[in-house]
Design brief:
The complex is a heterodimer.
Chain A: E1 18-31, E2 34-47, E3 51-55, H1 62-70, E4 78-86, E5 89-90, H2 96-102, E6 107-110, H3 114-117, H4 124-136, H5 140-153, H6 159-162, H7 172-184, E7 190-194, H8 202-219, E8 222-227, H9 230-236, E9 239-244, E10 247-253, H10 254-259, H11 264-271, E11 329-332, E12 335-337, H12 342-346
Parallel strand pairs in A: 3-8, 3-9, 6-7, 7-8
Antiparallel strand pairs in A: 1-2, 1-4, 4-5, 9-10, 10-12, 11-12
Helix pairs in contact in A: 4-5, 4-7, 5-7, 7-8
Chain B: H1 2-18, H2 37-46, H3 49-66, H4 104-140, H5 142-157, H6 160-170, H7 184-193, H8 197-211, H9 214-221, H10 226-263, H11 274-282, H12 290-317
Helix pairs in contact in B: 1-8, 1-10, 2-12, 3-4, 3-12, 4-5, 4-7, 4-8, 4-10, 6-7, 7-10, 8-10, 9-10, 10-11, 10-12, 11-12
Classes of the chains: A alpha/beta, B mainly alpha.
Chain lengths: 348, 323
């Protein structure tokens, strides 16, 4: 069963028009050693002003799905299937040139490591200004003036003085601000932030997240936040999609999912985070390793690591965790989970 | 000579490409002064005596090539008197006379122009071919890369001197412009045509290394076009080792020109060239050894000047070589 057959979930009512609809997105990498299935049927929508967190560990396909949306995967070896509709137009079927026009003013992205994402041979002002030169044909002087304006907007001190500095002359937090300035230069409708704070220390993380939230409030852009940091998700996101082995295994509002997980994997994630109340107790890790994407386990991909799995005679008919792939289904109002026994996990 | 040169070219490729680690110009993030890869490199170059030796020699050579009349002490290379045939060096005529009784110093000095013109013209063509073919092959990869790399392999199979030799022999019988003249242009073109592959491989490998860097993905995510990404973002980060290779190659190509001319397929009389002088002098080496000695010394110094500069540049552009 594929996820395209699942009923769409009602979205939180706080948001505006739909900006992005991702439907049954598949990404595979064809290699000599075999096919690596990085993303296996991911669907979600993003509305104006909404913050969607995509949560998952390394290799869960969260970054690859974002790169597929941006169209920055190398094709081949990557093969992308499904549909990605930006304001109703399918980006996968449009021409490369039309896609390029969307990148920047339509959808923009910030990356995890700002130092390696900035070109070492150009000043930051040149790089921010490049957005205006590429998309609006601005002159060098106009572009530089706008770059200073943007650096002010992302709260880089002494912007006019620092506009000619090179990326390596900035601190980590300031570099991420430069990256954000580039990404928001053309007021994108959607901003994808791929682990924007992972490379930063905790106080700077908070500043950068605050900045992103403020910018979102000003412009009403949709924000897709890709992260493995549960704390960041809890603070800034409206809704959350948890990914495992290239699939969304649970989806709902942050409040719901964080209060009572509907999938054993989410439950495991929550239990592996230190809690102030549980001080002195032992953390409960998720046993085992994330699956090899070239050989994803049959049935529920999480079953080899799942404490709640039911196999063979224990399982209900057609719901054997080792052989039957659980679809992403509505398990409570506004909640979806891909587990045969989600109701048990939720405790309803 | 030919095998040695091919070996040298390959060794330079390896040294320039793999030991410098220039794909990701790493800079000291703690340093607060205004700096960049190039200003750091200049700082390191300034302190390198080998760079100064190389660049002073090169500068001298360029001046000699531009204004040879300033360096010949009033002698005319074409004013010859057979009475002076094979006269040894003296206080008035430092390099002596050649077999025709021409002032030898004037001849050697006037030979610099052809050598330099051929070296520089050939290296420009090598760079053009190498950068364009290498950048396209490296950036687009796949089928395009396969075709272009195989073409380079085919040229690699032909030794530089052998290929140029055949081309220069056949050239005058055709009506291809430049090639049918046997002038400096034809020699330079023949050398470049069989010498561009190493530059192409260097550029290709650099472009492949830089292509996968995050800032290229970022530029694409910001809507930059392929040509903009390649020209503005990848090439400036990929040129450093190519620059090093190019500097060394000027020297190698000048030596190759002398080799071709010596073998009789390069420049022809009445052109003035070090290769021609060495060829003419070799039969008289017992009676007039200075006829081989002086052009050989000048040729060696010229080649050495470019190689010293290239070596210094390579050290300066490699952050790991700095103290």
């Amino acid at each position: 069963m594929t996820q395209s057959q699942i009923d769409p979930t009602p979205k939180p009512a706080t948001t505006g028009a739909t900006l992005l609809e991702v439907d049954d997105l598949h990404v595979e990498f064809r290699q000599r050693s075999g096919v690596v299935n990085a993303v296996n049927g991911v669907s979600y929508t993003l509305a104006e002003g909404e913050t969607l967190a995509i949560l998952g560990e390394s290799g869960s396909g969260k970054s690859v799905s974002a790169q597929a949306i941006m169209g920055i995967l190398d094709v081949p070896p990557a093969v992308v299937r499904g549909s990605i509709r930006f304001e109703g137009r399918d980006m996968l079927t449009m021409s490369e040139e039309d896609q390029r026009q969307i990148r920047g003013p339509g959808i923009s992205m910030i990356f995890q490591d700002a130092l390696s994402s900035l070109n070492p041979v150009y000043s930051v002002g040149w790089q921010i200004g490049e957005m205006f030169r590429v998309h609006q044909g601005a002159s060098r002087k106009e572009a530089k003036a706008k770059a200073i304006e943007l650096m002010d907007r992302v709260r880089i001190p002494a912007a006019a003085k620092r506009v000619n500095d090179y990326p390596h002359q900035f601190s980590g937090g300031m570099r991420q601000r430069v990256m954000i300035a580039m990404a928001i230069a053309l007021d994108p409708r959607i901003l994808i932030a791929d682990e924007p704070t992972t490379a930063l220390d905790v106080t700077v993380q908070a500043q950068v997240m605050d900045l992103l939230k403020d910018l979102q409030r000003e412009t009403g852009m949709g924000l897709i936040l890709i992260t493995h940091d549960l704390g960041v998700v809890n603070e800034v996101a409206d809704s959350v999609a948890v990914m495992y082995a290239g699939r969304i295994v649970e989806r709902g509002t942050v409040d719901d999912v964080f209060t009572d997980a509907g999938h054993p994997y989410t439950e495991g994630l929550m239990n592996s985070v230190p809690q102030v109340e549980a001080k002195g107790g032992r953390l409960q890790p998720i046993v085992g390793q994330p699956p090899n994407l070239a050989a994803i386990p049959s049935g529920c991909p999480f079953h080899p690591r799942c404490a709640r799995r039911r196999l063979g005679a224990e399982a209900a008919p057609g719901r054997d965790c080792a052989t039957d792939l659980p679809p992403l289904r509505l398990v409570a109002p506004g909640r979806e989970a891909a587990c045969h026994y989600s109701e048990e996990v939720l405790g309803v | 000579m030919t095998d040695q040169q091919q070996m040298d070219l390959r060794k330079d490729e390896v040294e320039a490409g793999t030991t410098t680690g220039l794909a990701s110009p790493s800079v000291d993030p703690l340093s607060s002064r205004q700096n960049s890869l190039w200003s750091d490199a200049w700082g390191a170059l300034k302190r390198n005596p080998l760079f100064w030796i190389g660049s002073v020699l090169t500068a001298l050579l360029v001046v000699v090539a531009l204004f040879p009349q300033l360096f010949v002490r009033g002698a005319d290379p074409r004013a010859c008197d057979l009475a002076n045939s094979k006269a040894l060096p003296s206080a008035q005529h430092w390099f002596g006379y050649d077999q025709q009784g021409c002032d030898y110093m004037a001849n050697v000095v006037y030979g610099a122009r052809n050598s330099l013109i051929i070296g520089i013209f050939a290296v420009v063509v090598v760079l053009l071919l190498g950068v364009v073919v290498g950048a396209i092959a490296g950036y687009f990869g796949g089928f395009v890369d396969g075709i272009m790399s195989r073409i380079a392999d085919i040229f690699y199979a032909l030794p530089l001197i052998l290929g140029a030799l055949v081309l220069l022999r056949v050239g005058p019988t055709t009506d291809i412009p430049i090639l049918n003249t046997r002038g400096p242009g034809a020699v330079a073109l023949a050398l470049a045509l069989f010498g561009w592959m190493t530059a192409m491989r260097l550029v290709r490998s650099q472009v492949i290394a830089v292509k996968s860097s995050d800032y290229v993905a970022a530029a694409r995510a910001m809507g930059a076009s392929n040509s903009r990404i390649l020209i503005r973002h990848i090439l400036p980060n990929a040129v450093a080792p190519v620059l090093v290779y190019t500097t060394i190659t000027i020297g190698v190509l000048i030596a190759a020109e002398a080799t071709l001319t010596y073998l009789g397929v390069g420049l022809q009389r009445p052109a003035i060239s070090w290769g021609l002088q060495i060829a003419a002098g070799q039969d008289l080496i017992r009676t007039a050894p200075h006829l081989v000695l002086f052009p050989s010394i000048v040729l060696t110094l010229t080649v050495m000047a470019f190689i010293l500069m290239g070596d210094a540049l390579r050290d300066a552009l490699d952050p790991r070589q700095r103290a």
